[in-house]
Amino acid sequence: xxxxxxxxxxxxxxxxxxxxxxxxxxxxxxPLPVIPAMVQAFGGEQGAAFGVSLAVTLPTxxxxxxxxxxxxxxxxxDRRTLLVAGIxxxxxxxxLPLWIDSLWLLIGSRFILGLAxxxxxxxxxxxxxxxxxxxxRAFWLSAQGSFPAAxxxxxxxxxxxxxxxxxxxxxxxxxxxxxxxxxxxxxxGPAMTPEVHGxxxxxxxxxxxxxxxxxxxxxxxxxxxxxxxxxPAYEFGYVVLEQQVTSxxxxxxxxxxxxxxxxxxxxxxxxxxxxxxxRQLALYFMVCAAGQLTVALSVxxxxxVAGAAIIGLAQGAIVPVLSMWLLDRVDExxxxxxxSVFQTVLYVSQFSTPHLARMVALxxxxxxxxxxxxxxxxxxxxxxxxxxxxxxxRPA
Length: 396
Description:
mainly alpha, 16 helices
């Protein structure tokens, strides 16, 4: 068994790995339309409102925690085995709310669900790096961005429709973990665990083989991108409300259009694969700034929807390009640790974004002004990245 990428890995393995982020999206989206019904159902328990909110958001923190724990373990875990184990736990834990009657058992099941998702995402991104190289790697990383973006639209619509029949029924969607588990067991792929031959983990060489310093810029940009690109989308409802639009339909349409734009945006890193990642990030920052500017300054539904679509293009592209950059920077021996830290940084940042967005809007005393501030900062960041790339490209 080797850790080298294989050109003979079938596309079915890429599809399975691209479906893993879909499970993350569904796990987060499914309970959103039925939060009031869940609070009412558990109203007899103390702290029901807080407990339901915790149950809904806890998986994101658990994903980050799982990434941190796996980062400590290192790259000695067979990533294929980790993926299968994570999907198995997910298939069992995800639909448990269909039968649970205790709020605290619900919270516990959602925490276990998040740990399973964390193991799945770390393994899935790492296996894309193990299985594929070049254009195929770029394609499947883009698929890991476009599949969940499409699932956002479908999942939101289906969970909202199922929620009419009770707070439990949307969780039927999470039964998809069972066919995914069957697929990963039937369509067996090669196990890919990087091995350092001739060394033991206790040797000094093994300890110093992996360098974190070259990855710091990626982790920092991941935090910045999460805060600056994902946060404003949570303010769509407040932006239109400031213009005396009280309907909840328009923010829902904007969110769906943003998801559709993200599907298209996720394809961009594949098309721009030969462009330096810093230059790609500068481009996506500018695109997102343009979308946020459009939403902030518009006073009509056409402008708001158009701006949401433009923001979606940047959102869909940002995670695939960061993942691609990360996998290109690390060798196989350190891939698991690097991906674990990346997932931790990404999900902790995304967990914080709604709170950050609300805080910025409150400080600015307007959601639209807050979004305008995001657009200005993103434009400055794009300019700084562009100048950095240009300076580095100059001949000595």
